[in-house]
Here is the input.
Amino acid sequence: MTGTSPTRNLTTSAFLAMSLDGFIARPDGGLDWLLEAGADLEDTGYDDFFVAVDSMLIGRNTYDIVAAFDEYPYAGKRVLVLSSSLETVEWSDATVHRSLNSALETLAAEGRRHVYVDGGTVVQQFLRAGMLDNLTVSIAPVLIGFGIPLFGPLDSDVKLELTGTRELPAGFTQATYRARPPG
Ligand SMILES: NC(=O)c1ccc[n+]([C@@H]2O[C@H](COP(=O)([O-])OP(=O)(O)OC[C@H]3O[C@@H](n4cnc5c(N)ncnc54)[C@H](OP(=O)(O)O)[C@@H]3O)[C@@H](O)[C@H]2O)c1
Here is the structure.
């Protein structure tokens, strides 16, 4: 990134669960495989991670899934939703952004320090742009065959630095990487 990047003072992190074959949800968004495989999961580190971020940047598909939850999971966080189709969102302290640049400029203008990036396509954009600092992936011991992929096509290789691994209950493996190129 150059010195003029709107993310130069912003830490960007993603924290996702993935099937061993690389999917974050079934084609219809279903997470039954994850809830079933992870029924005995205890502390995944998510709570500490969530406390450490001051804002969230999510894609519209993730928004749609979360909007249907009984309980709002982002209380106390500034939320930016990327979408070309949504006009507004009803959550408090949440806004819609038509482009990644618009969202990044807003985060910079508001002085946000640490954003939680979520949604497959959104994480992919950060990886492609070399703008993701931390990527934590909890790999579920299940193959689901089809679904929404965490990773996608690339114009060039993205090299990551492994910063931690641990075994979780229920056969999960968690790996954390630094994805932003040095410098
Ligand atoms: N397993 C996990 O840990 C985990 C974590 C998060 C999400 N999920 C699941 O993953 C699924 C969502 O991931 P996804 O990859 O399908 O979608 P997503 O990244 O959440 O959302 C994609 C949508 O976001 C909007 N968008 C993305 N980039 C944009 C940009 N640069 N400018 C404007 N709009 C942009 C577009 O919405 P418009 O079409 O409105 O333009 C696009 O269709 C859900 O099923 C969710 O439950 C799983």
